[in-house]
Amino acid sequence: MSQPDASAGPASTAADPEPTTDGTDGAAAEPLVVVDDLEKHYPVRSGVLRRRTGAVRAVDGVSFEIGRGEALGLIGESGSGKSTLAETLLHLTEPTGGTVRFDGAPVGDEAGGFDDLRRRTAMVFQDPASSLDPQLTVGESAAEPLRVRGVARRRRRERVATLFERVGLTAAHRDRYPHELSGGQKRRVGIARALALDPAFVVLDEPTAALDVSVQAELLDLLAELREAFDLSLLFVSHDVSVVRRACDRVAVMYAGELVETGATRSVLDDPAHPYTRALAAAVPTPDPRAERPRHSLSGAMPDPADPPDGCRFHTRCPEVIPPEDSGLTSAEYGAVIDLRVDLAGGEVDLDRLRARADGDDADSLGRALRAEYGLPGPDGDAGRALSAAVDDAVAGDDATAVGRIREAFGSPCVRENPERGEGDRDSACHLPTE
Ligand SMILES: Nc1ncnc2c1ncn2[C@@H]1O[C@H](COP(=O)(O)OP(=O)(O)OP(=O)(O)O)[C@@H](O)[C@H]1O
Fold first, then answer.
1. What does the pLDDT look like over 171-208, one tens digit per residue?
2. What was the ipTM of the complex prediction?
3. ∠ CA 320-323-329 to the nearest 5 degrees?
4. Are 85 and 41 within 8 A, CB to CB?
5. CA 67–ligand 1 middle distance (angstroms)
6. SS3 category, 350
7. ∠ at Cα 328 (323, 333), nearest 5°?
8. Is 239 a pocket residue for ligand 1 (Cβ < 6 Å)?
9. Mutate to test the pocket of ligand 1, among 42, 52, 74 (most ligand atoms within 8 A of CB)
10. What is the DSSP string of 244-307?
11. How far is the CA of 22 from the centre of ligand 1 (A)?
12. CA of residue 266 to ligand 1 center, whole Å
């Protein structure tokens, strides 16, 4: 593609953008986006009367900043809350708590900030197939933000031609329908549409998902060029660590509705401080087939965001969970006890299944089968006695008592307290001591 030419950019034909606060001392000193304690809880309703009985804590007290011209990557497994965070941040869905400041002004109050946010931010949605209307030409779809703002038809066409060329398409692509374009071309249309109103901040939800590696690389090059040319701030939402490594200055790591680590991309991904980040970074496939399997691999599933675990939300899967003091347990052995507790609490210890595996039908045989299934340790002293009693309770079907015993006898900071992410440039929320 040709070199960036800012004069061909969105500003030249946008719908009369008002002067921004860029350049004024106060606003310029503040990062473009400041998110403080943002929260999005979805109500859980049940019963005939559909009463509210709980909440899905999709985003649960998240704070971060994005500087002017900066690219921040948001990574985490599926279901960690990345898309909800992105949508809530742009007020496409209403937050249930917390604040967003955009370019020095609070967003969401009628006094201001809202229209500015709408006009100066844009989102490129995850799935271009569903975000482009199959009934409209892609040129019409890309022109939609301009139409909504009252820009005349002829000006819209010209503008879209400029934008299409800017993103590596041609003016002739305007009259095609989505099904006539490749996956990569559809992404480019989405990017062109996002640029239509000359935004300062663009959120890209999984911008390269389901594309060939070479098409991914071209798209990332394009985004880097556009960022530079238009001084864009970008938020890359991705579960693909290698995309974020390539495209972002900083990275924020999300787990079960919370940010667990933030910092400069290289520093976070090459030397993660949080065990979850270590697991995500280790999961990136290495080109060397002889390389050892990562030691920090993730097992188990993300907790239910309607019922997140007490303490550190990652403790139920953490390969480095801190064992109770003086228990003599390793993290892995403690992890086995936690697995049992989680399954008992969720009613997932199936005694019939255990019976099928046990070498007898008596309580001792069932207890041995349960210990074998979970790989339970046999600690000495009080912890050992408590675990044996819990196993007896479990095989007798008294899951609640078993859970209570384990909780009492196997305490650790990881199960007691949710660690706070500190302040500053490089932070992680973990109870493990840092060197
Ligand atoms: N409208 C909704 N109502 C109830 N729960 C929701 C709603 N939208 C999302 N959730 C839940 O919120 C949690 C976070 O979902 P979200 O889509 O934000 O995660 P994600 O990290 O973006 O995942 P993915 O990468 O799969 O898109 C999930 O448990 C999801 O089921």
1. 999 999 999 999 999 999 999 999 999 999 999 999 88
2. 0.98
3. 105
4. no
5. 26
6. coil
7. 55
8. yes
9. 42
10. HHHH-SEEEEEETTEEEEEEEHHHHHHS-SSHHHHHHHHTSPPS-TTSPPPTT---S-PPPTTS
11. 34
12. 28
| DSSP letters spanning 351-408 | HHHHHHHSSSSSHHHHHHHHHHHHT-----HHHHHHHHHHHHHHHTT-HHHHHHHHHH
Nearest to 335 by CA among 355, 351, 321, 350: 321
Distance 39 CA to ligand 1 centre (A): 13
Q: What residues contact 45, with CB distance under 8 A and at least 6 apart?
A: 51, 52, 53
Residue 37, Cα to own-chain centre: how many angstroms? 15
Q: For ligand 1, is residue 386 a contact (CB within 6 Å)?
A: no
CB 345 within 8 A of CB 357: no
Q: 216: Cβ below 6 Å to ligand 1?
A: no
Name the CATH superfamily housing domain 6-276. P-loop containing nucleotide triphosphate hydrolases (3.40.50.300)
Instruction: Give CA–CA dist 139/123, Å, rounded.
Output: 17
pLDDT at position 6: 37
Residue nearest to atom 29 of ligand 1 (CA): 79
So where are the chain's domains? 6-276, 331-411
Looking only at the bridges linking them, the beta strands covering 51-66 and 201-205 are unpaired
User: Does ligand 1 come within 6 angstroms of the Cβ of 59?
Assistant: no
Q: Among all chains, which residue has been given the structure tokens 């859970």?
A: 403
Residues 7-22 have pLDDT tens digits of 344 444 444 444 444 4
